[in-house]
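Lab meeting prep.
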Amino acid sequence: MTDGNNEDTAAEAAAGESKSPDEIRADIERTRENLGDTVEALAEKTDVKAQAKNRISAVKDTAQGKKDEFVAKTKQAAPKSATAGAGQLTSTVQAKPLPFAVTAAFAIGLAIGWLLGRN
């Protein structure tokens, strides 16, 4: 955790250069800021609850993104499939109308019998 500023300060001191009080105060202030940043970083690393919340948030975001992607793909695929199915059913009914007509007549007969049986 060495800092370039500290190395410069040590090099200057070794070279015999003296600093003015203002330069020393500036060095002290930089050191305090660096120390504060280091303490904040350590506190953040040791805050397990915050790390867990961040991880949960990241997982939720990932899951939401995958869900949105899946829904978009499904919406793109569904209209084509539904249209194709409806077209296939229409062509089948037009090609062979008798089985569908018999089935429809039977269903209508059941519905009428059920309605009459209720009264």
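Slide two material, second protein:
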Amino acid sequence: MFTWWYINWTADTVATHMHILAQAAIGQARSAMTLAASAVAPVFTAGRLHAGVQQARAAYQGSLLQFEKTVLTSYKEVEDQLSALQYLKSQSQLQSLAVADATRSEQLATQRFKAGLVSYLDVVTAQQEVLFNERTAAQISGQRLLDTVVLVKALGGGWTRS
């Protein structure tokens, strides 16, 4: 009985070892076939790979052109606002001179009225001219502030309400 168990155990052990060796041999064969298939696969998919590369290049070129467009638009916006601010600065200086001249004219009209040389209508007309010039100066100043805000936004700035 002892012999039978020993022989049975030995036969089972040999069968198990044979199974393990067979699995290893099949695994190596499978690995070799997988390696061969992976080496040959790019040959059969070369057209698809080339098309994928071309598509990626086209997407890159499209992104690059979009970026260029965005940068050029930003430069244009900044340049436009700087130009507008420069123009409004010169207009503001001219309008300040106009306000000063109108104020001086109004003072002279008031003095002449007090001296009895002109009617009060001349004083009112001079005051209207002062108010008109001051209103124009305020409009120019407001436009300068708006253009400054647009410039800050064009430069990438912003703000939040707190």
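Talking points for slide two:
The longest helix spans residues 46-114.
The radius of gyration is 45 Å.
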